[in-house]
Write a structure and sequence with these properties.
single chain; about 240 residues; Rossmann fold; seven-stranded mixed sheet; four-stranded mixed sheet; globular
């Protein structure tokens, strides 16, 4: 299984996916055709065009999953990329179009999976650690399960000087762990995960990530950290 799971697809002062050019180049080295899953945003054609432009320097042909029979597209592609936006809308469309199982099957047989933000959320067992508002209701929260733990993209650290009176991201994850005994990786902006079969590595920005487990304090992780032990987590 080959995965690249990005916390975000845009960064200040940089083009779409530009901050992850090196990681994308590595994972897309043998890819000539890619299926883009644009369902987290409403404008499927516009979103697909943005991705096609960003991946053009890699010499990759991009087709939107909405533009033709998605099964035929998946079977002819070497990679699938699920973009960010609203996670609830994305998952609803994956259920509605009956695409979760075919994508799982292709990834299990070697198709590269790339996700950013919402696309990273749906690589988890469930979408219950997304930051998004539930603007629509999917049939279930169960997702693709390419990794057996949860991810919180766009993770923000608590800011003691902030005047915000709501819950911090850390508090929300702690509440999740009160009900679910499964690790949660809080990925800060500019970070990503690379999975190559049984190897899982944190990459990207030096800000790194935080790993939350029930009954333990958060663990700080730096780029290059080997997280392969998380692949042995039991889905709860």
């Amino acid at each position: 299984m080959r995965l690249l799971l990005l916390s975000n697809s845009t960064a200040p002062g940089r083009g779409y996916l530009e901050h992850a050019t090196d990681a994308l180049g590595e994972v897309l080295q043998d890819v000539r055709r890619l299926v883009f899953v644009p369902f987290a945003l409403a404008d499927h054609d516009g979103y697909t065009a943005i991705v096609a432009k960003a991946l053009a320097p890699f010499g990759i042909e991009v087709a939107g999953a909405h533009q033709d029979d998605p099964i035929r597209l998946l079977n002819s592609a070497q990679a699938v990329f699920t973009g960010g936006g609203n996670t609830f809308r994305l998952l609803r469309e994956l259920y509605r179009r009956e695409l979760l199982a075919p994508i799982r099957d292709r990834v299990a047989h070697g198709t590269v999976y790339i996700g950013s933000s919402a696309g990273t959320n749906v690589a988890c067992p469930t979408i219950r650690t997304t930051n998004d508002m539930p603007i629509v209701q999917p049939p279930a929260f169960d997702a693709a399960g390419f990794v057996p733990f949860q991810i919180n993209p766009h993770y923000l650290d608590p800011q003691p000087e902030s005047t915000h009176m709501g819950e911090t991201r850390e508090e929300r994850i702690d509440q999740f762990l009160e009900e679910n005994d499964v690790p949660v990786l809080g990925m800060r902006e500019g970070t990503w995960l690379r999975r190559e079969d049984d190897t899982l590595t944190l990459g990207g920005d030096e800000a790194g990530a935080r790993l939350f487990r029930r009954g333990a304090g958060p663990a700080e992780l730096r780029p290059g950290a080997d997280l392969s032990d998380l692949l042995a987590s039991e889905i709860a």
